[in-house]
């Protein structure tokens, strides 16, 4: 008990002690601001312009092909046609949806086929788990999609080549058998 009393008494004694000495404030010496070294930066280089996207007039390219397709042997007027998404097999970027839309518009203007509406194709692709950006488009997928939509024919199109020389190849296939009724190609300028 004495120890506890001594410890408490020492703590109170130490707590009551105050410093009577005050320290003078630290001396402040003004310092001149140092000017940063002037570095000469290299002159700005011009950023090269990205290549301009070449505008392709798909209507003019696919019109002669669709005209030939409509007159192909074995084609029955008034049947339901699926225009499958154009496949890009080139080494460059290509707006395949514009090409697909152009083929659809030209086929509609011939009044030979009934074209499956875009919204039905969109919902069928979703139901079958096919993405609209599917880069692995194949004839079997196109025929499977056409069968799902109860189409009689399917147009399968592929663009191949390189930037200097590209070509579109279109095929009209009978959905029941997968038989190619017509096939032709055209250069893309």
From TrEMBL:
Gene3D superfamilies: ABC-type transport auxiliary lipoprotein component. The keyword Ligase does not apply. One of its GO terms (molecular function) is enzyme regulator activity. It is found in: Cell outer membrane. Residues 22-50 are annotated as: Disordered. Keywords: Cell outer membrane, Cell shape, Lipoprotein, Membrane, Palmitate, Peptidoglycan synthesis, Signal. One of its GO terms (biological process) is peptidoglycan biosynthetic process. Residues 1-20 form the signal peptide. One of its GO terms (cellular component) is periplasmic side of cell outer membrane. Pfam families: LpoB (PF13036). It is a lipid-anchor. Belongs to the LpoB family. Regulator of peptidoglycan synthesis that is essential for the function of penicillin-binding protein 1B (PBP1b). HAMAP family: LpoB. Interacts with PBP1b. This is Penicillin-binding protein activator LpoB.
